[in-house]
Each structure stands twice: as C-alpha cells, then as structure tokens.
C-alpha cells in the first residue's frame, strides 16, 4: 500500500532521526529482549478508534532499522473506523521477537501521533466549508510543533490529513510577529530591514492586530498579512477592505481557531485559516500492536 509523500524526506536525515529515537529508548541494553529471544514472529497493528491513518514512512524506517518488515493493509490517508470492539488491522509485521518488541513503542508513538494530526487536520478541512461551500482557501497548520525530529512527523500528519503544512521552521518564511515589530520600531521599519536581508525569494508575513496594521504591512510589501485573534464578525468586515486595496496579498486568519469555529473564518477573501491544534494538540487516537509468538504460527 502507498504512503502520501514518502519521497519528500531526506533518507539520510530520516534514518538518523529514527536511530536517535531508538538509541534514546535503548541507551544500553534490553533485558526483556533477551528474555524473549530472536525467533521470528508476526505482529499486527490494530486501530481501535476512528482515525485517518498516517506515519507509514516513519514506521517503515523504525522496523527496517531493526531488521523487521511491515506490509500495510490500507493506503496512508485512509479513514479507518476502528473502535474498542471493532479492531481494524492496518498492517502486518514480521521479524525477530526481540526486535519487534524493541520497535513496538517507538513505532506506535510515531504512528499514533502522526495519525492524530492527520485525523484532526481532516476534520478541520471537512468542516471548513460547512457554512461557505464555495470557499477556495486552505486550512493550515502552524509552527507549533514538538521540537526536533518529531516536527516532521506532525507536519507530515497535517499533509496526510489534507491541510497545508505552513512554514516548517524559521528559515522557510519570515513571519514578523508583534514582538518583532515592537522591537524593530514598527511595521514599516521591520519590513524594510527584512526585505534587505531575505531578498526576493523568501516570502514575508506580518502579524497584524488591526486593519490599519494590515494596510501598512501590505503597503510596505508584505506577501502575507495575518489577522490575529480577530472575531469572525471583525474578519468579515476587515477582509473586503484589505482585498479591495491589495487583491494579491494573501490573508491568513489565526488565533484560537479550532474545528468548531473554522467555518466561521472561511469567508470570501480569506486565503488561509491556520489552526495550531492540528500539530500541537490534536485529540489522541488509539493504535496497538499485538505479537503472535513463534510457537503459535
């Protein structure tokens, strides 16, 4: 079965990150692994809650690093309607018993976290057009992720769920937030210096606390204006005014938005609605791995 975007990862960095996870979990020795031995066993991944399954590239790498192999029963991005009474098999694994057990926790953490992000992203995307079916914008994640290699897991989950990943790090797009602007001496001054440093090839986004801020940012050359912590009513009034003067500027709505309120911000003229919960606080999902002993194969 296929993954959504396996080819986007640097294979060397992927292996390095996965080996780092395994080293952290097995810093010296594994007594339990010695107890069970190395006879070849089989295992299955069971989904026990409704979710969008995601994280195949990471789990594949964990298992491969420990000499195990997995065959997925569904395509990544598939909605799986599992429950505690209806456990759905999404993958079958084979390998030495000790290696399967050494892989289990790391693989499950990657699979469940990525699937949780994908599931919440899918929910937000599906809900976004419930009040305006003609809305042509995108739901996006934010940079609120777990630091380190796990950032890629959460961003990938957002992609699998159908959301825009937004910027990956501080180097991928310049975002001038309130603290930048206050320290730099205002929007215009911050924008001038930013453009001098990043050149034409990097987009600049400015966090705006009012329509006046947004107009000043667009006038100064911002590619994206973020209307931060606007109410839905305030957004509906502000967006047409900004778009009329600057039709090519991207408008992003952000700040406290979730799957229950995203549709209120999906109004004509809004290009992006960003939701931090997609990567930093999605509801948990339930996936387990059950091994069949070699004696029962």
UniProtKB/TrEMBL annotation:
Keywords: Glycosyltransferase, Pyridine nucleotide biosynthesis, Transferase
Gene3D superfamilies in the cross-refs: Aldolase class I, Quinolinate phosphoribosyl transferase, N-terminal domain
Protein's UniProt keywords contain Transferase: yes
Pathway, per record: Cofactor biosynthesis; NAD(+) biosynthesis; nicotinate D-ribonucleotide from quinolinate: step 1/1
E.C. number(s) listed in UniProt: 2.4.2.19
An example Gene Ontology biological process: quinolinate catabolic process
Mitochondrion keyword on record: no
Residues annotated as domain Quinolinate phosphoribosyl transferase N-terminal: 37-115
Stretches assigned to the Quinolinate phosphoribosyl transferase C-terminal domain: 118-290
Top enzyme class: transferase
GO CC terms in record: cytoplasm
InterPro entries in the cross-refs: Aldolase_TIM, NadC, NadC/ModD, Nicotinate_pribotase-like_C, Quinolinate_PRibosylTase_N_sf, Quinolinate_PRibosylTrfase_C, Quinolinate_PRibosylTrfase_N
Listed GO MF terms: nicotinate-nucleotide diphosphorylase (carboxylating) activity
Catalytic activity, as annotated: nicotinate beta-D-ribonucleotide + CO2 + diphosphate = quinolinate + 5-phospho-alpha-D-ribose 1-diphosphate + 2 H(+)
Pfam entry (one): QRPTase_N
Xref: PANTHER family: NICOTINATE-NUCLEOTIDE PYROPHOSPHORYLASE [CARBOXYLATING]
NCBIfam families (alphabetical): nadC
Function, in words: Involved in the catabolism of quinolinic acid (QA).
Subunit structure: Hexamer formed by 3 homodimers.
Family: Belongs to the NadC/ModD family.
Protein name, entry field: Nicotinate-nucleotide pyrophosphorylase [carboxylating]
Source organism: Bodo saltans
